[in-house]
Amino acid sequence: MKVLRLIVTLGFFVAGVALLVVPSHAAPVTASPVFAPTRFTVVDQGTAGKPDIILIPGLASSRAVWDAEAKLLAPNYRLHIVQVDGFAGAPAGANATGAILPGIVEELHQYIVANKLNPIVIGHSMGGLMTLMLADKYPADIRKMVIVDSLPFYALVFKPDATVDTIKPQAEIIRQQMTAMPADQFAAMQPALVANMVKNPDAQKLVAASSISSDRAVFVNSMVEDLETDLRPEVATIKTPMLLLYPYDATLQGPDPTKIDTVYHTAYDSKPNATLLRIDDSRHFIMYDQPAKMDTAIQGFLK
Question: Does the pLDDT of residue 4 top 80, yes or no?
Fold first, then answer.
């Protein structure tokens, strides 16, 4: 029962669970052929010659989660919108083998260097964790970053004194159970997960299951890597200016936001150049539940 509860709670972080792969509607600019990543694809949008922004979706998400925000950013920025291979119907590619998150981070670095970018990076959920990993390993790659609902160690959501060693046995059980789960049972889990991740009814239909169209092995292995990654010791040395947006919904978390505030502020307390902003009346997909508040915060930070 505890493991099942942990799996359901993972809905807070399982970004982009949808039955349909939602296409991105903004008109693309020709993607650069300078470097061809093997773990993700990139669609270029926005205005050529403007400052560069890389947008990274979360676990199991399509890049389409950024559609609304991309439309607002496009007049003033050149956008590089990532789709992780193996998620939301994309072929697994190189993510079928080896460590996934470090591999993606390494290719993001190569993409930035090859294209001579000095970008702002915006990451949601697992995409936020990879943004932190990139800023930690390659601090010169990012001039500003926006983290949308992500922690340097996700297991803190379950237990404030969690460690990698204490979470590993549970993570391994989750890996085994979710890998072996029949497709119909996996699909049946999604409504409960989605309800905890997003309030917007229309968005629930969109977020209702790209996990089902995701490669199961890539999905599960990425989630376990996420659970077992602890960047807390590195947070104090990541000097990249950061805006963290995190959600609060009284109907799920109770009338007092103090507990959720403590989780995020404690996790990032040692991070220099950090601004933390709580977005009320929102769940994990802030871009769907409070798009105007999110855009105002991002645009203000970027300017």
Answer: no
Torsion angle of alpha carbons 287, 226, 3, 253, nearest 10°? Answer: -30
Q: Burial-class residue 93 by CB neighbours within 10 Å (0-12, 13-18, 19+).
A: middle
pLDDT, tens only, 154-168: 988 888 889 999 999
Tell which phi-psi region holds residue 68, choosing left (phi > 0), alpha (psi between -120 and 50) or beta: alpha
Beta bridge partners of 45: 79
E-strand ranges in the chain read 40-46, 52-56, 78-84, 120-124, 144-148, 242-248, 274-280
As a whole number of angstroms, the distance between CA 37 and CA 60 comes to: 18
Radius of gyration of the chain (CA): 18
Residue 33 has what pLDDT?
Answer: 58
Average pLDDT over residues 49-53: 98
Q: Which residues, in sequence order, are bridge partners of residue 277?
A: 245
Please give the single-letter amino acid code of residue 302.
Answer: L
For residues 149 and 197, the answer to whether their CB atoms sit within 8 Å is no
Q: How many angstroms separate the CA atoms of 177 and 202, rounded? A: 30
pTM here?
0.90
Mean of the per-residue pLDDT values of the chain = 89
